Amino acid sequence: MPFKTCPNCHYDWADRKHFLSDPKICLVGYQVNFGELIAGFFLFTHDTPECGTSLAVDAGKFVDMHNGPIFKERMTGTAACPGYCLHESCLKPCPNHCECAYVRDVLQIVKNWPKDSTAAT
After folding, report:
1. Which among 17, 51, 98, 106 is least surrounded, fewest beta carbons within 10 Å?
2. DSSP letter at 85?
3. Residue ranges of the domains in the chain?
């Protein structure tokens, strides 16, 4: 079973590395699920002339990329919260010791993943 299949052009990415290394895959956002953070979605675009569709991938498929603490307390709505999770297209890391901060950390890893120019989609 592939890591992800494009719902429009049906291209299959065999695994996460293949998906993230594809230069035609662009991270565009994160849709938070405050009830269960791993149930949120990382949002991508399959940026090809033939396709151009949006892709949502469960945040849980990236959680193992985080190498650090996961804080217990959520700071959403407090004066210290910059509100990044409330804006789908915001990819900034969170400076707080917030439950959501680890997802923001993973976003940085995904955003900066090296692209393989030999990959073709």
Report:
1. 17
2. G
3. 4-111
